[in-house]
Design a protein that fits this description.
The complex is a heterodimer of chains A (about 450) and B (about 250). Helices cover about 25% and strands about 35% of the residues of chain A. Chain A has helices spanning about 5-15, 25-40, 55-60, 75, 115-120, 125-130, 140-150, 380-390, 395-410, 415-430; strands at about 90-95, 95, 110-115, 155, 165-175, 180, 185-190, 195-205, 210-220, 225-230, 240-250, 255-260, 265-275, 280-290, 295-305, 310-320, 325-330, 340-350, 355-365, 370-380. The chains are: A alpha/beta (about 450), B alpha/beta (about 250).
C-alpha cells in the first residue's frame, strides 16, 4: 500500500491535469503542494500536535477522489438538518455537491458552490481578493487542502444585507468507499454591515473510515456580524481536522461555537485575526466525549489593533478513555492597546482514564491591556449529587442536570432557538437521559 | 412511620452511630438534640441514604418497609425529605426548574404523568407565598449566592413543594435571625398533619419554641442517652450538655 502522503502527491498530478493550468490558482496550488511535500502530515514532535497523533488514522487506504456520485434520499438525512425552520443549504455527498439536497440562492446574496466561484469569470475578482488570503500558507494541512481545493461552500453576503435565514453547510459521507479522504474548502464573505448565521456539520452515514481536512476562510467586514456554529457529532470512524481562519474588520462581531460530541479524532484549529478597531471575537465550545474519542481545540486570537475584545469559553466533559486538548493562544501585538481578552476553559473528568491537556498561552506585547485566563479541571460534585438525589432526582438524571448546567453558559449564547433545542437534545441523548433541561 | 432499630454506622474507620433506636409515629414531632460531634447530622444523612456512610448493623424502616438498601432518590420517592444543614449551591439550575425536575422525576418513579405546567405554577406560587419568598428569587441559580437565611427558607419551600411523609430538619435554625426563624417554623407548622412526621435536629432549644416537639431525644456519642417530653429541651438549655456528658 502506498503511503497516504505519496498517494496525495501523485494524485495531485492527475488533479492538475484536469484544471486550467493558466489560471492564477495554478500557482497557488503548486506552492501549496510544495509546502505539503516538505512538511508532510503533522506529528507529535511538533509542539502544536503534541497530544494528538494522526498516525493510526493515516494508515487507512483512503480514496482521495470519490469514484462515483452518490445519491441519498432526503428522509435518510433529514434528522441532521435543522429541519424545524427554513434554511439555505449547501450539501455535499462524499465531497460532491448534491443539488437535490441543497437549497442555494443568488437572490440578494450568494449561497452556492466553491467550484463555481473558482471557475466562473464573474467571481474572478472576489477569488483574487479573498481566496487563500487569510489561511496560514505555512501550515501543512491547510496547504494540502489548498492544493486540492475545488469544492465547498461559497457564501457572499453583500453590504448592508441581513441574510433572511440561516445557512447550513453539510458534508455527508456515504461509506461507498472503503475509506475516504475529503478536503472541503469554504469561503465566506460577510460584507460591510451585513449579518449571517451559518451552521456546519460533517456526518458519516456508516462506519467506514473518513478523514476530513477542511479549510474555511471567513472575512467579516466593517460592522458586520457573523455567527458560526459547528456541530461535531459524527460516528466513531470519522476524523476531522477543521482549519478555520477568520479575518475581522473594525467594529465587527464574529462568533464561533463548536459542539464536539462525537467522532474519533477531532482537531479544531480556530484562528481569529483582527484588522481594525473595536472588534469583538467570541469563541465558545462544549465537548462531551467518552470511549477513546479525542477532541483537540487549538485556538488563536491575534490582537493587532487597539480597543478590541475577545472572549473564549470552552467547557469539556470527558468520560471513558477519552482525551481532551485545549490550547488557547492569545497574542497581543504592541499596537493593540486597551485589548480586553478573556479566556476560560473548564473541564470535568468523569473517569479515572480520561485525560485533559490544557494549555493557555498569553503573549502580550502591549502594556495597557486586560487579559485573563482561567482553567479548571475537576470531578462531578458529589455533595451536589447527593443533594439532588435526596430531592428525588435519580443519579443519572442528577448527573445529567449537573453537566448540562455546567455547559449552560455556552448553550445560552446560541442565537438560533431551534439549534439551541437541537443541541440540548443531542446532549440529553449523549448523557443517556430523557429530559428537557428546561433551565 | 419511621422505625430505627439498633443502627450502627461509620464513615471510613470511625464509628459514629453506635446503636440508635427510634420510633416516630405519624402526626408526631421529634426533636433530636445533642452536643457537637454526637452524631446528629450523621443520623440524618444515613436516614436519607448518603453513600459515604456505611451502615454496619441495624435497620431503618419507613412505614414498615426496610429502606436500608435504597438509593437516596428512592427514599425521597418513598416520602423522606432531608433539609440540609448546609444546602449545596448548584450554579446554572434555577430554583423553579430544580423543583420541576424533582417533582416530575418523583412522579415518573411512581408511574404518574408529569405535573401540568399550570398546576406546577400554581403550586409554586402558593408555596412561595407560604415561605414569603420573592418570585424573583425562584429564577436564581439554586442556593448560589443565597444568604444563610435564604438557603434555609428555600429548603422549607422545597419541603412544602414535595410534601414528604417524613421531614428531617437538620440544624434548620442555624444561621437564621428571629424573623426568618419565625417564617421557617410557621412554614413547617402549616405542613404538619396526622399523616406526616417531623424530626427536628438541633443544638439549641430556641427552634423548639416555634416547632413544638412531642418527644425530645438526647444523642451523645452515637447513642440516644435520654428521651422525654418537650420539658427535656428546657432542662438541657438550663443545665447545658455537660450534664449529659457527666452522666455518660
Amino acid at each position: 500500500m502506498m503511503e497516504l502522503k505519496e498517494k496525495l502527491l501523485s494524485s495531485f498530478m492527475a488533479f492538475e491535469a484536469n484544471v486550467d493550468v493558466d489560471s492564477d490558482l495554478h500557482n497557488v496550488r503548486t506552492e501549496a503542494i510544495k509546502n505539503f511535500e516538505i512538511k508532510g502530515f503533522p506529528t507529535k514532535k511538533e509542539e502544536a500536535w503534541k497530544y494528538t497523533s494522526l498516525n493510526a488514522v493515516l494508515k487507512n487506504d483512503f480514496s482521495v477522489f470519490p469514484k462515483q456520485e452518490n445519491v441519498i434520499s432526503h428522509v435518510e438525512v433529514k434528522k441532521y438538518f435543522i429541519h424545524e425552520i427554513d434554511t439555505y443549504k449547501v450539501v455535499f455527498i462524499d465531497g460532491v455537491f448534491s443539488s437535490f439536497l441543497s437549497s442555494t440562492t443568488h437572490d440578494g446574496l450568494d449561497v452556492c458552490l466553491m467550484s463555481s466561484a473558482l471557475t466562473k469569470p464573474k467571481y474572478k475578482e472576489v477569488i483574487e481578493t479573498y481566496f487563500n488570503k487569510i489561511a496560514n500558507i505555512d501550515d501543512s494541512l491547510t496547504s494540502l487542502n489548498t492544493a486540492f481545493a475545488s469544492e465547498g461552500a461559497y457564501i457572499n453576503i453583500p453590504k448592508n444585507k441581513i441574510a433572511d435565514k440561516p445557512i447550513e453547510i453539510m458534508y455527508l459521507s456515504t461509506g461507498t468507499e472503503a475509506a475516504l479522504m475529503v478536503q472541503p474548502r469554504n469561503l465566506i464573505i460577510v460584507g460591510e454591515n451585513a449579518q449571517v448565521q451559518i451552521i456546519e456539520r460533517h456526518q458519516s452515514l456508516n462506519s467506514n473510515p473518513v478523514l476530513t481536512n477542511s479549510v474555511t476562510e471567513i472575512f467579516v467586514q466593517e460592522r458586520a456580524i457573523a455567527d458560526y456554529y459547528k456541530i461535531q457529532n459524527d460516528v466513531q470512524s470519522a476524523n476531522l481536522v477543521d482549519n478555520t481562519y477568520i479575518a475581522q474588520k473594525g467594529h465587527s462581531v464574529a462568533s464561533v461555537h463548536t459542539f464536539s460530541f462525537g467522532g474519533n479524532i477531532t482537531r479544531n484549529n480556530l484562528n481569529f485575526y483582527h484588522q481594525g478597531e473595536r472588534i469583538e471575537s467570541i469563541l465558545k465550545g462544549i465537548t462531551i466525549i467518552g470511549d477513546k474519542q479525542l477532541v483537540d481545540h487549538y485556538t488563536l486570537v491575534q490582537h493587532a489593533e487597539p480597543n478590541c475584545e475577545s472572549h473564549q469559553n470552552y467547557k469539556g466533559i470527558f468520560d471513558g478513555n477519552s482525551t481532551g486538548v485545549f490550547n488557547g493562544k492569545i497574542y497581543v501585538e504592541r499596537e493593540a492597546q486597551k485589548t480586553d481578552a478573556f479566556q476560560q476553559n473548564n473541564n470535568i473528568l468523569l473517569s479515572e482514564k480520561a485525560t485533559i491537556n490544557a494549555k493557555p498561552q498569553l503573549e502580550i506585547f502591549a502594556d495597557d491591556v486586560k487579559c485573563s485566563h482561567g482553567c479548571t479541571i475537576g470531578q462531578l460534585d458529589e455533595s451536589a449529587m447527593f443533594y439532588m438525589q435526596s430531592r428525588g432526582i435519580p443519579q443519572k438524571e442528577a448527573k445529567a442536570l449537573l453537566m448540562y448546567a455546567f455547559s449552560n453558559e455556552v448553550i445560552e449564547s446560541i442565537k438560533i432557538p431551534e439549534l439551541k433545542s437541537r443541541i440540548t437534545k443531542i446532549i440529553a441523548t449523549k448523557l443517556g437521559v430523557n429530559m428537557g433541561f428546561d433551565l | 412511620m419511621l422505625s430505627i432499630k439498633n443502627l450502627h454506622a461509620r464513615v471510613e474507620d470511625k464509628e459514629i452511630l453506635r446503636g440508635i433506636n427510634l420510633e416516630v409515629k405519624a402526626g408526631e414531632v421529634h426533636a433530636i438534640m445533642g452536643p457537637n460531634g454526637s452524631g446528629k447530622s450523621t443520623l440524618s444523612s444515613v436516614i436519607a441514604g448518603k453513600e459515604e456512610y456505611e451502615v454496619t448493623d441495624g435497620q431503618i424502616f419507613l412505614e414498615g418497609e426496610d429502606i436500608g438498601e435504597m438509593a437516596p432518590e428512592e427514599r425521597a420517592h418513598k416520602g423522606i425529605f432531608l433539609s440540609f444543614q448546609y444546602p449545596v449551591e448548584i450554579p446554572g439550575v434555577s430554583v423553579t426548574n430544580f423543583m420541576k425536575t424533582a417533582i416530575n422525576e418523583t412522579r415518573k418513579a411512581k408511574g404518574e404523568a408529569e405535573m401540568p405546567a399550570n398546576e406546577m405554577l400554581k403550586l409554586i406560587r402558593e408555596k412561595s407565598e407560604l415561605l414569603e419568598i420573592d418570585r424573583k428569587f425562584l429564577s436564581r441559580s439554586l442556593n448560589e449566592g443565597f444568604s444563610g437565611g435564604e438557603k434555609k427558607r428555600n429548603e422549607i419551600f422545597q419541603m412544602a413543594m414535595l410534601e414528604p411523609k417524613l421531614a428531617i430538619l437538620d440544624e434548620t435554625d442555624s444561621g437564621l435571625d428571629i424573623d426568618a426563624l419565625r417564617i421557617v417554623a410557621n412554614g413547617v407548622n402549616k405542613l404538619r398533619s396526622e399523616n406526616n412526621a417531623v424530626v427536628v435536629i438541633t443544638h439549641y432549644q430556641r427552634l423548639l419554641d416555634y416547632i413544638v416537639p412531642d418527644f425530645v431525644h438526647v444523642l451523645y456519642n452515637g447513642k440516644i442517652v435520654k428521651s422525654g417530653g418537650k420539658e427535656l429541651a428546657y432542662e438541657l438549655e438550663e443545665k447545658g450538655y455537660d450534664w449529659i456528658k457527666s452522666e455518660n
